[in-house]
Design a protein that fits this description.
With 656 residues, this protein is of the alpha+beta class. It is built from 29 helices and 19 strands. Strands 2-1-5-4-3 form a five-stranded antiparallel beta sheet, with helices on both faces. Strands 7-6-10-9-8 form a five-stranded antiparallel beta sheet. A five-stranded parallel beta sheet has the order 12-15-18-11-19.
């Protein structure tokens, strides 16, 4: 029975190893191992470890087949941590190349600091090291699982390690490494026999049942000899009925693929249909040939993944995920509070949502927040800008295309946004820009809840929540004949209107605070001071570009360390031309107070640098005094609601 370290022991081992790495003088900025054998030295090292290499070779190959397309690489080292074998798919091998993880490189603490191999060999125990547990910064994005290998006398002769991106790591990976290391040790201790093969295979089989995809092993006739437990869930029958069945019983097109396997070809990421009880479902299939010791093809290893899981992975690594939540919405105005409450209430509805508002008001942020607040949050959030896609491509982007649909079509075709968003949310931005003929096709898809790929004839059902957005007045577009009436009412089942920033002016101070801090961190700049004059102009400016324009202005302000003379030189010309009463003249010119001529003292106070919080306190106190405690007029003068005014008075503990 394998007993893994508890958390305290694990932390102690990591901490002790880091201390040793510091004593060895390892720099945290080190990227590659400092100790690497020459070609001649490596040849001698490989010969010295010939027995380990010959014994471990078949197990490393089997392990490689199991994790081939999961983004992991396998390292085999000697007892000193010198790499004597590296195995993995081409993509991950390319990724690790800059880190110098090649044959002859030492993974010892003296060479590259704390890592799973070095600690496993030092502690003579299996270990998983993830992210910042590595000593050098270069390995902070990786997760490594390692286990020592012992000979028949119990002496440590090597180490087996699996390395991959930390987001792909899971605890069972260490179990898989330990099981394989034990199998290698077992083979080292005894002659190869059928009983020992079954023992070793049993270790690996247990781990197979923890994998998140179906694994099948077939013989040369295509008969399924072994299946992991997940196969029962996919095929909806017990595992003992799957084993000894033929692959063709589940995948009708299997014979064509198996011909390639018999020619020692590997099949990667093929979309096929499995048939069960008359229902067909698309899955992602990989097939790897199995060979005997003499190189003869003896069968295959097949992996099957549900396409929903595949699409979810695609969405994750292509950035098609919702990042924003309602907590990310900056604003305390009554309008924003009502919008948030309203959108939270409708988040879990399957009905389509139409978000309307001027450019820069944050329509996509609202869309993402709705998605993340719904029960579809674990599904993909797939966005398509209808105004940024050429008219000739928008259909294939939405519905996908089949193999051979056009000259440059990819082999196997390509799924469209509806398929990628299945089980999640499809966000159609700038829906008012959609061409008239595509409006018809979109309406049909929404009515029938199916799509057909370009060049294909198979209807593909989908389960997608539609959120559309536009900065156009769609009803006016309908009246002008630019947008279909039936599509408009299909999309605007739940309408959401985002007011422009000038209509929720009380949110501007909070946005200024937020963007000043955000941009200072992003640009690695000191937080600049802002004088009262500029702050007032920012609050009273109409911001035609809304939140996006305010964000861009603050970024320029932080970039130039708050120096207005330099800011004046680089401001875009259109900013000045919008209105002599707005940002162009009012923000960057001396303020002329209505019916007043400030004396020297007042002029000095205008230029005084104080905190934004103090500005708000002063502004509220001044307004209360001017309007003789008429809170309606005070709120109106400050550009905020009465509720917001009372909240600020309470927040700042103002005695008014």
């Amino acid at each position: 029975m394998i007993t893994l370290d508890n958390n305290t022991d694990h932390r102690n081992k990591i901490r002790t190893s880091h201390l040793r790495s510091i004593e060895y003088g390892v720099e945290r900025e080190r990227v590659q191992p400092s100790v690497v054998l020459t070609r001649r030295e490596l040849s001698a090292e490989l010969e010295r470890n010939r027995r380990l290499l010959d014994t471990a070779g078949p197990f490393v190959s089997l392990l490689n087949e199991l994790v081939f397309d999961t983004g992991f690489v396998i390292l085999l080292t000697d007892e000193k941590g010198c790499i004597i074998e590296v195995s993995g798919d081409e993509d991950i091998m390319g990724e690790i190349e800059p880190y110098g993880l090649v044959k002859g490189a030492f993974m010892s603490e003296e060479s590259i600091g704390s890592n799973a191999i070095s600690i496993s060999l030092e502690e003579n125990a299996p270990l998983q090291v993830t992210g910042r547990e590595h000593f050098v910064h270069a390995f902070h994005d990786w997760s490594c699982s390692a286990a020592p290998i012992h000979n028949e006398k119990g002496a440590t002769i090597g180490c087996l390690n699996i390395t991959g991106k930390k987001e792909n790591a899971y605890p069972h990976m260490l179990g898989l490494v330990v099981a394989t290391a034990k199998a290698i040790e077992y083979q080292l201790r005894s002659s190869f026999s059928e009983m020992r093969q079954k023992e070793a295979y049993h270790f690996v089989s247990q781990i197979l049942n923890t994998l998140e995809f179906v694994v099948l092993a077939t013989d040369i006739q295509g008969r399924i000899r072994r299946a992991n437990n997940l196969a029962s869930s996919m095929f909806k029958i017990p595992k003992d009925r799957i084993e000894n069945s033929f692959m063709q019983d589940f995948i009708v097109t299997w014979p064509g693929y198996f011909k390639k396997v018999k020619n020692n070809e590997i099949i990667i990421d093929e979309e096929v249909q499995i048939s069960r009880y008359g229902i067909k479902e698309s899955v992602n299939m990989n097939v790897y040939p199995l060979t005997d010791g003499d190189g003869t093809i003896s069968g295959s290893v097949v992996t099957l993944r549900d396409m929903k899981r595949v699409y979810k992975m695609i969405n994750k690594y292509t950035g098609m995920e919702a990042r924003y939540n309602f907590d990310d919405l900056i604003g305390e105005s009554d309008e924003m509070k009502k919008i948030v409450e309203y959108c939270q209430n409708i988040s879990d509805s399957p009905s389509t949502v139409l978000i309307q508002g001027e450019s820069g008001t944050g329509k996509e942020v609202i869309a993402q927040a709705i998605h993340n607040y719904s029960s579809r949050r674990d599904g993909g959030f797939v966005a398509l800008n209808c105004g940024a896609i050429p008219e000739s491509l928008i259909e294939s982007e939405l519905f996908g295309y089949s193999e051979g649909a056009f000259t440059s079509a990819k082999k196997g075709g390509k799924p469209g946004k509806f398929e990628l968003a299945n089980g999640g949310t499809l966000f159609l931005d700038e829906i008012g820009e959609m061409p008239a003929d595509m409006q018809v096709k979109l309406l049909r898809a929404l009515q029938e809840r199916t799509v057909t790929r370009v060049g294909g004839d198979k209807p593909i059902p989908f389960d997608v929540r539609i959120i559309a957005a536009t900065n156009r007045a769609l009803l006016e577009e309908v009246d002008r004949g630019k947008f279909r009436t039936d599509l408009y009412y299909r999309l605007s089942v739940i309408p959401v209107y985002i007011p422009p920033l000038r209509k929720r002016r009380e949110d501007i101070p909070m946005l200024i605070h937020f963007f000043l801090n955000l941009k200072s961190v992003k640009l690695r700049k000191q937080l600049p001071d802002m004088d009262n004059r500029l702050f007032k102009k920012l609050v009273h400016y109409d911001w035609p570009g809304n939140v996006r324009e305010l964000e861009n202005f603050i970024e320029k302000y932080v970039n130039l360390d708050g120096k207005l003379d330099r800011l004046e030189e680089i401001m875009q010309p259109e900013v000045y031309s919008r209105s002599s009463e707005q940002l162009g003249s009012a923000m960057l010119q001396p303020a002329d107070e209505k019916n007043s001529h400030p004396n020297n003292h007042e002029q000095h106070a205008d230029n005084e640098v104080i905190s934004l919080v103090e500005m708000e306190k002063m502004a509220i106190s001044k307004a209360v005094q001017v309007y003789n405690r008429n809170m309606t007029k005070v709120a109106s003068a400050l550009g905020i609601s009465r509720n917001a005014l009372y909240q600020k008075i309470k927040k700042y503990n103002l005695h008014i």
